[in-house]
Amino acid sequence: MLNRRRIAYAFLAVFALLAGGFGFLYVALAPFAQRDADARAAFGPIASLQPEILDNAFGVYIVRFTPDSFLTDRNVSQLLSLNRIPNDSDLTLMIETQSVTDESVTVIRQLTSVDRLHLNRTSISADGIALLVSSLPDCTLSFSATDAADGG
Questions:
Q1: CATH architecture label of 2-150
Q2: CA 79/CA 77 separation, integer angstroms
Q3: pTM assigned to the model
Q4: What does the pLDDT look like over 41-69, one tens digit per residue?
Q5: Which one of 23, 69, 80, 144 has the minimum C-beta count within 10 Å?
Q6: Which residue spans within the chain are E strands per DSSP?
Q7: What is the spatial distance between Cα 107 and Cα 78, in angstroms, rounded to a whole number?
Q8: Beta-strand runs (E) in 1-145
Q9: Is 121 exposed, middle or buried (0-12, 13-18, 19+ CB in 10 A)?
Q10: What are the TM regions of this chain, as residue ranges (predicted)?
Q11: Is residue 99 helix, strand or coil?
């Protein structure tokens, strides 16, 4: 009887340690699960536009639309899903397609979750760039000289 009791206590002790360990893992991994859910909500709606998306699982994201992507003035509103990224994350958006013009500025200026916005080889004019600079004061904006000079 004594051996059975010791075995039962040992089993309970091991079970308690494992349960506590899993509890610790859950607490430690919960932020990663939330970041993953936030990323799916933000990037899922733009996946059909074929951006390059880089992330490090710690809340640092780079979204790049190359000239081969499908981002245009007609579908730029899909970028608003990027606002689902939490403010404590770091989001860089790179737009490198001439299919984005001044017509897209109205939407781009609503991207409050973007920390850095790089516009290269777009068709956004100097006036459009100026509007973005004034509309996104917390965002670091860079653009190629051709964007602001001649709109293309």
A1: Alpha-Beta Horseshoe (3.80)
A2: 5
A3: 0.77
A4: 999 999 999 999 998 878 899 999 999 99
A5: 23
A6: 52-55, 60-65, 90-95, 116-119, 140-143
A7: 9
A8: 52-55, 60-65, 90-95, 116-119, 140-143
A9: middle
A10: 7-29
A11: coil
